[in-house]
Every structure is written in C-alpha cells, then in structure tokens.
Amino acid sequence: MSILYTVLLVLHIVCWAAALVVYLRDIRAPRVAPGIAHSIAGALVTGLILVALWEMTDVKDGDPNHVKIGIKLLVALIATVLAFTQQKKPAPNPMAHVVAGLVVVNIVIALVW
Fold it and tell me: Which residues cross the membrane (predicted)?
C-alpha cells in the first residue's frame, strides 16, 4: 500500500504543479484553460484517495489533521468549480488569477501547516 500511496502523492503534486504551469503559460492573456480545470480536478480526486488510504490503512503513522484536510478540500472544491465554470470565457479573464491564487493557497497550506 505504501507504493500506491507514494505514486498517488507524486501524481497529486504533479497535478497542482501542472495547474500552475498552464496558468503561467497564459499569463499575458489570462484565461482559465481546460488544462487548469482538469489538473485541479485530478489533484482533488487524488487528494481524496490519499486521505481515504491514510484513514483505512496504516500507510502513514498517526491520524490525519482533519481541519487541514477540510480547509484544503474546500479550497480545492472552490478552485475546481471556478475553473470549470470559467474555462469557456474569452481570453482576458481575470478569474484566472483567482483560480491560480486558490491553487497557490492550497500549496502553501500543504507546505506550511
């Protein structure tokens, strides 16, 4: 199970990084590209699977911090909904900055907390 957990963790990190890379690629004419929406959705799904594995098995020592996970889940859900609803808008879309900001907030929570 630890190999599966590690693979999912790497995929989770890659999804968040991909969302930022796609945003930075389009920063001159900001838009919410489909790549951002799908990367955030992938990070959300892998994050949920990681928490489920942590709860069900002894893949990590100790219990997960449910407050941290709840806040990260809320931020990821908001970012996912915004990304999917705003991806059809034309190129100068300021909501791309909001979505990218939520991605950065989620990464900072993961690293600092």
Answer: 6-24, 36-54, 66-84, 96-112
Q: What angle do CA 61, 19, 108 make, to 5 degrees?
A: 45
Between CA 30 and CA 83, with CA 18 as vertex, the angle to 5 degrees is 50
Nearest of 26, 28, 16, 72 to residue 48 by alpha carbon: 72
pTM: 0.92
Counted residue by residue, the chain has a size of 113
Domain boundaries, the chain: 2-112
Radius of gyration of the chain (CA): 15
**Alpha carbon distance 69, 75 (integer Å):** 10
Over the stretch 7-42, which tens digit does the pLDDT of each residue have? Answer: 999 999 999 999 999 999 999 989 999 999 999 999
In sequence order, what are the residues at sequence separation of 6 or more whose Cβ sits closer than 8 angstroms to the Cβ of residue 2? 59
Contact in structure between 20 and 104 (CB atoms under 8 Å): yes
